[in-house]
């Protein structure tokens, strides 16, 4: 039984999701105490319980995979302790609903890597939030899918059927997983290459159209982009209310996606300036991998290393989120991460 302290490092839900994914992938059980101890509301929230239930499902169901609290009872919302014993991962067609505006992309993050180890393809129908703060958006995962496979054939593809914004949720996405026949490829991302395309996209539903125009105007002025680089996408009113502002930078060797979200009592200009600062910070650097992607790449880099395919990537910064993820992965896999400073950023590599 691997013992994990959920209060370590950034102390959020990422530790839980990584542990669930790698427990299924390795067959190793774990106990986690102090789940999400550093969050305003510690313990399992609805979206985290959805991740646990999804992990149980792909591990053969409740008769084969067990997720209980310290008293041996099935875990519920608010639990701060989880004992998880995995069964054998089974490919198939699954439906997972968060049941709120919580991110269904985080549910995908939980079951993605174990299902990609299966011999057969799987299909997931996910419902909940698709564009959430503090979570990878559907756009982020869709555009960055090729980089998880060493820039080869994408390991998964996402069909977004309905947008889901906080606080209403109600989004839906269909994900098809394609296990790599030759195993996981090495990931080497050390250069951006030439800039091929840059654009901003404002998604909005159930809001005045002027909100999107004001957000895009701030980005246009701050980045000096042409009108053709601005995309104003009004969605069906029943997909809202909601607002997501995205900036996409596509280079020869990497695509980076940045996002900011509208919220009550925050002006359109404030939302746009938040995103503008993220884009400027990235543009001022030479490293290809932004802070959010740096975290996401750790599991595929580690799994490729187990097959003798060593990878590395240069990140603009090393966040506490990424450090915590590295320690969690090292608890399950016989790998060690190395983080070496380079040009104001960090080169992350792994050895088996």
Could you walk me through the main structural features you see in this protein, from its secondary elements to its overall organization?
This protein is of the alpha/beta class and 352 residues long. It folds into four domains: 1-90, UDP-n-acetylglucosamine1-carboxyvinyl-transferase, Chain (Alpha-beta prism), CATH 3.65.10.20; 93-181, RNA 3'-terminal phosphate cyclase domain (UDP-n-acetylglucosamine1-carboxyvinyl-transferase, Chain), CATH 3.65.10; 193-283, Dihydrodipicolinate Reductase, domain 2 (2-Layer Sandwich), CATH 3.30.360; 286-352, 2-Layer Sandwich (Ribosomal Protein S8, Chain: A, domain 1), CATH 3.30.1370. Helices cover 30% and strands 27% of the residues. It has nine helices and 16 strands. The strands form four sheets. Strands 1-2-4-3 form a four-stranded mixed sheet, with helices on one face. It has a four-stranded mixed sheet with strand order 5-6-8-7, with helices on one face. Helix 1 packs parallel to helix 2, helix 1 runs parallel beside helix 9 (320-332) and helix 2 packs parallel to helix 3. It starts with a strand and ends with a strand.
């Amino acid at each position: 039984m691997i013992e994990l302290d959920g209060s370590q490092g950034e102390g959020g839900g990422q530790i839980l999701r990584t542990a669930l994914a790698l427990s299924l992938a390795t067959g190793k059980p774990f106990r986690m105490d102090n789940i999400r101890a550093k969050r305003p509301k510690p313990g399992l929230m609805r979206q985290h319980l959805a991740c646990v239930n999804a992990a149980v499902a792909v591990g053969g169901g409740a008769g084969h995979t067990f997720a209980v609290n310290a008293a041996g009872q099935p875990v519920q919302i608010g639990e701060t302790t989880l004992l998880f014993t995995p069964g054998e991962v089974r490919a198939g067609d699954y439906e997972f609903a968060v049941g709120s505006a919580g991110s269904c992309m985080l549910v995908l993050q939980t079951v993605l890597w174990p299902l990609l180890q299966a011999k057969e393809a799987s299909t997931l129908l996910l419902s909940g939030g698709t564009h959430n703060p503090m979570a990878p958006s559907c756009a982020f995962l869709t555009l960055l899918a090729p980089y998880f496979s060493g820039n080869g054939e994408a390991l998964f593809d996402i069909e977004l059927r309905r947008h889901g914004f906080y606080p209403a949720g109600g989004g839906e996405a269909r994900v098809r997983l394609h296990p790599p026949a030759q195993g996981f490829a090495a990931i080497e991302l050390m250069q951006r290459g030439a800039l091929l395309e840059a654009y901003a996209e404002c998604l909005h539903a159930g809001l005045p159209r002027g909100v999107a125009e004001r957000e895009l105007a701030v980005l246009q002025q701050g980045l000096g982009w042409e009108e053709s680089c601005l995309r104003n996408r009004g969605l069906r009113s029943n997909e809202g209310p909601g607002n997501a502002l995205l900036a996409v930078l596509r280079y020869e060797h990497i695509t980076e996606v940045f996002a900011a979200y509208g919220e009550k009592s925050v002006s359109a200009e404030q939302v746009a300036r938040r995103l503008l600062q993220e884009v400027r910070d990235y543009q001022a650097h030479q490293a290809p991998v932004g802070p959010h992607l740096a975290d996401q790449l750790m599991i595929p880099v580690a799994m490729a290393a187990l097959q003798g395919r060593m990878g590395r990537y240069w990140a603009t910064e090393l966040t506490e989120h990424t450090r915590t993820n590295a320690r969690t992965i090292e608890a399950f896999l016989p790998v060690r991460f190395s983080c070496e400073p380079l040009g104001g950023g960090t080169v992350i590599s792994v050895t088996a």
